[in-house]
Amino acid sequence: MTKRPATIPMAPIRRAAGLFAGLALGLAVLAGCSSQGASTDCAVDACTVTFDRGVDARTTILGIEAKLVGAEGDQVTVEVAGEQLTLTTGQQAAEAGGFSVTLDSVTDQQVKIRVARNPGS
User: Which among 86, 88, 113 is positioned nearest to 101, based on CA atoms?
Assistant: First the structure.
C-alpha cells in the first residue's frame, strides 16, 4: 500500500482568498476618505457629505477634496475639486471638476451636500 500525502480541497481556499481580496479592497476605499469636521456616506460613484458648521470642515472623497467655505440662510459656498460653488437648497446640480454637486439641506448645525461623478467623466 502506497501512502499518499493528504490533499486540501481547493474550493474553501479560493473562497477565503476571494473574501480577503474583497476586504482589502473595501479597506482601501475607506482609507481613501478622510474627514475633519465632516462625515461621509459613500457609494461607488457618489457621496453624501455632512459638514459641521462653525469649524474648518473638509473631507476627501472620490479622490477629491470637498470643504465648506461658508453658509448664510439657505445659501452655501463649498469648494469641490478646487472649484468654489454657491449652492441653494432645491437648485439643480452644479458642476465642478467632473462632479455634480447638490445641496441637500442646511441647518444651524450642519450642511449636507451630495457629490457624484458625472457619467463619462
Answer: 113
